[in-house]
Design goal:
The chain is built from eight helices and six strands. By secondary structure, it is α/β, with parallel strands linked by helices. Among the domains are: 7-40, RecR Domain 1 (Helicase, Ruva Protein, domain 3); 79-174, Dna Topoisomerase Vi A Subunit, Chain: A, domain 2, CATH 3.40.1360.10. A four-stranded parallel sheet has the order 4-3-5-6. Helix 1 packs across helix 2 (24-36). The radius of gyration is 21 Å and the shape is globular. The mean pLDDT is 92.
Length: 202
């Protein structure tokens, strides 16, 4: 049975359905929630959406989201600019930053190599990374590849490592394996294999 919405509401539901992880029911709930908001809150939400598209751009150096040409991390003199962490997406950068442990700088690839999705190396910020490592001042001494432990993430890391190693830079990969607090009997085979492969001496 078809669901009837007034046209403006149907359009809003349709737009919400385009968001990742949002199905028809979630889209309807969000649309109805918006309908119940006071007008000033609705305008504030609309203004935030409009402003973010107009004011946020990609950092010229690391390709993270930024308000200016260069982001706050890249311009911070307290960061170790000889240590470079490579991530796939801006959200991955946020995840690393939340640990409070990494004091270097970043390079965001804007995705991973995924032939099935038509994404090759030429569609990522890999050439910019090569140039940055080759010509950086100060010179990059170590590149940490922090892509997800997926087929695409591993493929991307291997490809990038192959390009960077000839430049004389140390290339490392974040360890994979058992999560903290995890049980061996619940771990899948691939996770256990990686846990053994990336073991370290105590």
């Amino acid at each position: 049975m078809a669901v009837y919405y007034p046209k403006p509401l149907a359009r809003l539901v349709s737009e919400f359905e385009k968001l990742p992880g949002i199905g028809p029911k979630s889209a309807q709930r969000l649309a109805f929630y918006i309908m119940r908001l006071p007008e000033e809150e609705t305008r504030a939400l609309a203004d935030a959406l409009t402003t973010i598209k107009a004011s946020i751009k990609f950092c010229r150096i690391c390709h993270n989201y930024s308000e200016g040409e260069i982001c706050d991390i890249c311009t911070d003199p307290r960061r170790d600019h000889t240590l470079l962490c490579v991530v796939a997406e801006p959200r991955d950068l946020i995840a690393v930053e939340k640990t409070g442990e990494f004091k270097g700088v970043y390079h965001v690839l804007q995705g991973v190599i995924s032939p099935l999705d038509g994404i090759g190396p030429d569609k990522l910020r890999i050439k910019d990374l090569q140039q940055r490592v080759a010509e950086g001042d100060p010179r990059v001494e170590e590149v940490i590849l922090a892509t997800n432990p997926t087929v695409e993430g591993d493929t991307t890391s291997m490809y990038v490592a192959g390009l960077l190693k000839p430049l004389g830079v140390k290339v490392t990969r974040i360890a994979h394996g058992m999560p903290v607090g995890g049980d061996l009997d619940y771990a899948d085979q691939a996770t256990l294999i990686q846990a053994y492969e990336y073991r370290r001496e105590l």
